[in-house]
Design a protein that fits this description.
Chain lengths: ~350, ~325
């Protein structure tokens, strides 16, 4: 049904002057035009809805209110997803007969196995490191002076793009031969300590770990914010009671704090894991997936657009989807237990 | 993709905890933890260490962006801290200069033009749909809502390539803003509808019933009663979506490629990082030009910002 809707749509549905603009004024005109256009559609739906009266009309109104979102999602998300799944089982080109070759390639070709290994490293290391650091920091600055400022410092990386973060860290890792003056901070530190300088982004598997650091740097602030809120939500009387019993320090953390924030910990770990699974920008900006640093989301892009293997790219996208499911299921099971 | 999780979070957690602790909390510490003084000295040290580790990389690139091209390649940025004087705006001037091949100004404008409709449109559509799902009975409503809810787990990668085909071959968009406007809207709808729906469900039903008794239709109720009440939810999601779109690389890269007329600044900066990886005068200034707006938003709207992020978790 969706397909037939699309096939009747004329090609060039939007006339050229509203499609593109080169001048700055033209671009802003397009922007205002688009907002006005969408507002008009929005108003049209509401006007149509107001025409329906009575009990039956009531139901028609409801359907009409939901229709634009539901329609866009079916045409723009569900239908393309189905096409991708079909493409993934039709060989490397995505146009041949039925075959599982794309999936078997993922688990046999050495380059693709490496991609899976890298992705596993990311998904294991990033959530745990980011959460551990975020938790440590949240506990350390809890109720300290300047807490708001201290939090903002760690949280700021979440506001900037992963492209920006990639460049910031690429500069930290910048390589110059040991004898020459260094411009990268990390190599300067190595040099000051008397070591040889390193090509951090070229040498596998070190380079993957160096990219993982960037994601940990971004996500620790997210972990810190949520866990800090969870720690503040622990009832004071529980802490007081434990303190009267002589519990303090690590024991307090182990037996009181940790169990109380379990739910928030699961949220943080799974949310970061899902975000990490789809990491693309960092790898793309820093190494473009070269030197054995590719991950599934990056390989999806490369196979689809650079190596002309859309079938394999589709299979990698489906793999991403499949990998997200167990994390979500684990999350739901944990939530049920808590409830 | 935060849906499943939102419910599990403690109540108090909703607003950003970036405000200073209250007096009461401070008092509690002084009475309760006198013994921990030594411990807290170590704690402060570790906290400061983490804070320094987290800010130094950004500081380094920021300092670099104000140094001359020659200095950047001849000495580390840290030497400029002890020996200042050579700071210049030349890198920014070159990065923004219109007409030059390295110019970022038109990409910056593209980012703005992409972002505004891509934030407003999902807010429009999602609040409309959320109202229907929350307060208007129609056949198949619950099944549809569950379906929209479930779509949150679908990674956008799975839709990109067929969608590109639809835009180019069926709709004739080519590399135009319309592709990214629509795509960002589509990918935002499941989360936006879900969040706004949750917010609407919490409003008292009497409010709507009273208005209906007075003869108000759904359209009137939606505009006159709901929209004003919805402002906090719309602001939180709006900021989350703003950051998502402004910082996006993948969606724009797929639908726009590097076309200078339409591509956003993230695409251009990522491209420069590949093609001119050692032109640090350009990369440092470019990175900060692309980051200035989201960082300003962060500093100005911290509370909304954090609430939006918490609500949104990690979409994509």
């Amino acid at each position: 049904m969706v397909a037939s809707v699309l096939s009747v749509a004329p090609s060039g549905i939007i006339p050229e002057p509203f499609l593109r603009a080169e001048s700055v004024a033209g671009k802003f005109f397009l922007m205002f035009f688009a907002v006005a256009f969408f507002a008009a559609v929005f108003g049209g739906v509401l006007f149509l809805a107001s025409l329906f009266k009575g009990r039956k009309g009531e139901q028609a109104q409801g359907a009409l209110f939901a229709a634009p979102a539901v329609l866009l999602l079916s045409i723009g998300l569900v239908y393309p997803a189905v096409l991708t799944i079909i493409q993934s089982v039709r060989g490397k080109s995505g146009e041949g007969g039925f075959s599982l070759s794309n999936y078997s390639a993922m688990f046999t070709q050495p380059e693709l196995l490496l991609v899976l290994r890298n992705t596993a490293l990311w998904v294991i290391l990033v959530p745990f490191l980011a959460t551990a650091i975020g938790l440590l920091y949240a506990i350390l600055i809890d109720r300290a002076r300047g807490e708001a400022f201290a939090k903002a410092l760690i949280f700021l990386p979440m506001a900037i793009s992963m492209v920006g973060a990639g460049i910031i860290w690429k500069f930290v890792y910048q390589y110059k031969q040991t004898e020459r003056p260094q411009i990268g901070l990390l190599n300067q530190i190595l040099k000051s300590l008397g070591f040889e300088t390193q090509q951090f982004l070229l040498e596998a598997p070190l380079n993957t770990l160096m990219l993982i650091v960037v994601m940990v740097w971004i996500q620790a602030g997210f972990a810190m914010t949520i866990l800090s809120a969870a720690i503040k939500a622990i009832p004071d009387d529980i802490i007081e009671a434990a303190r009267l019993d002589g519990v303090s320090g690590l024991k307090m953390f182990r037996h009181i704090t940790l169990p109380s924030i379990r739910a928030a910990l699961v949220v943080v770990l799974t949310t970061i894991a899902i975000g990490t699974l789809k990491v693309f920008d960092i790898v793309r900006t820093m190494t473009a997936g070269q030197f054995d640093t590719s991950v599934v989301a990056n390989e999806f892009y490369s196979q689809s657009f650079r190596y002309n293997a859309p079938g394999l790219g589709a299979a990698l996208a489906v793999l991403l989807f499949i990998l997200v499911i167990p994390i979500v299921v684990y999350n739901i099971i944990q939530m049920r237990k808590e409830a | 993709m935060s849906t499943v999780q939102t419910g599990a979070l403690p109540e108090s957690f909703e607003p950003a905890d970036l405000e200073p602790p209250s007096k009461q909390q401070k008092l509690k510490k002084s009475t309760g933890e006198a013994a921990g003084a030594l411990q807290s000295r170590w704690a402060s040290l570790v906290a400061v260490l983490i804070a320094v580790l987290w800010t130094t990389p950004t500081l380094g690139l920021l300092v670099t962006s104000f140094r001359s091209q020659r200095d950047i390649n001849r000495s580390g940025w840290w030497t400029a801290l002890t020996d200042p004087g050579g700071f210049t705006l030349e890198n920014y001037r070159q990065a923004l200069e219109p007409g030059s091949s390295a110019s970022l100004s038109q990409y910056f404008i593209n980012t703005i033009v992409i972002t505004v409709p891509a934030v407003l449109l999902p807010l429009f559509l999602a609040s409309l749909a959320a109202y229907a799902f929350a307060w208007m009975p129609f056949p198949g409503r619950n099944a549809l809502f569950v379906a929209v809810f479930a779509l949150q787990i679908v990674p956008l990668q799975i839709a990109l390539i067929p969608l590109l085909d639809i835009y180019v071959n069926k709709l004739g968009f080519g590399a135009s803003y319309w592709s990214v406007w629509l795509s960002h809207t589509i990918f935002a709808l499941p989360l936006a509808t879900f969040l706004i729906h949750n917010f609407m469900r919490e409003l008292p039903a009497e409010l709507m019933e009273a208005a209906r008794v007075d003869g108000a239709g759904h359209v009137t109720i939606f505009f006159k009663i709901l929209l004003p009440l919805l402002t906090p939810a719309l602001a939180a999601f709006g900021i989350f979506q703003f950051l998502w779109v402004w910082n996006d690389l993948l969606v724009s890269l797929v639908f726009l490629g590097g076309t200078p007329d339409v591509a956003p600044i993230t695409v251009r900066v990522a491209e420069l990082s590949g093609s001119r990886g050692s032109a640090w005068y350009l990369l440092s200034a470019g990175a900060f030009i692309s980051m200035i707006v989201p960082v300003a938003v962060f500093l100005a709207l911290q509370r909304f910002f954090v609430r939006g992020l918490l609500a949104g978790g990690l979409k994509g």
